[in-house]
Amino acid sequence: MDVLVMLEENAEHSTVLAHVNSVPSPLHSERPHREIVTLYGAPSSESLALALAAAVEGQRAALSDGGGSGAIRHLGVWAERGAVGDAAWRDTAGELHTSDLEIPLEILGITAGRLLVECGSVIQRLVAGLAMPDWPEGARRAINFSLTPAFAGAGTIEALEVFRQSGGLAFEDFEDEGEGIN
């Protein structure tokens, strides 16, 4: 699973902690689908863990509904509500299906807690990277990292082990016309 974590610093009026969006891989492409996590305000290990937990639980929910990794998901993450959003996908006949998603705060908290226990140092490095003061002016603060595809569909223990072992971080600078890697 490919994850892009972005930071939106100007979030004075928003109560949402994060948005989590999934982008399926293009047809006939070997690129994995991507989870895009946008954090609002000052990043913390706890807020990032909660957002990553929403990505994991959202993918798990889509798999159980039949959407699989081809589902497009949009989730908002709130400290007091958990994650709320929807998913859409096409079945093998091409029919569009949609599903509302609601992941209770209790479930997110448990998953986030496990992520922090098992992968706290990786999460802290991601937060430190997002909070670095020396990003180029005008650059969007974004860090991309990859997890094996087994992470999303695996049980929690296996998923956390894969996440803990993934230490490869890449920094990306995104512009309006495309993306480049610094």
The share of residues in extended strands comes to: 25-35%
- Helical segment count: 4
Mean pLDDT: 79
Q: Taking Cα atoms only, what radius of gyration do you get, to the nearest Å?
A: 16 Å
Record field, number of beta strands: 9
Ends distance:
21 Å
- Kindly name the structural category: alpha+beta
Overall 3D geometry? globular
Main-sheet strand order equals 6-5-4-2-3-1-7-8-9
Q: How many strands, which pairing sense, and closed or not: the largest β-sheet?
A: 9 strands, mixed
Element order: H for helix, E for strand: EEEHEEEHEHHEE
Low-pLDDT ranges: 148-154, 168-182
Oligomer: single chain
Number of domains: 1
Helical content class: 25-40%
Task: Spell out the key features of this protein.
alpha+beta, 182 residues, nine-stranded mixed sheet, 9 strands, single chain, disordered C terminus, globular
Task: Report on the architecture of this protein.
This protein is of the alpha+beta class and 182 residues long. The chain has helices spanning 45-65, 105-131, 150-153, 156-165, and strands spanning 2-8, 18-23, 34-40, 72-78, 82-90, 96-103, 142-146, 169-175, 178-181. It has a nine-stranded mixed beta sheet, with helices on one face. The longest helix has 27 residues, at 105-131. Residues 148-154 and 168-182 have low confidence and may be disordered.
Element layout with pairings:
Blueprint (H helix, E strand, L loop, with lengths): L1 E7 L9 E6 L10 E7 L4 H21 L6 E7 L3 E9 L5 E8 L1 H27 L10 E5 L3 H4 L2 H10 L3 E7 L2 E4 L1
Parallel strand pairs: 1-3
Antiparallel strand pairs: 1-7, 2-3, 2-4, 4-5, 5-6, 7-8, 8-9
Helix pairs in contact: 1-2, 2-4
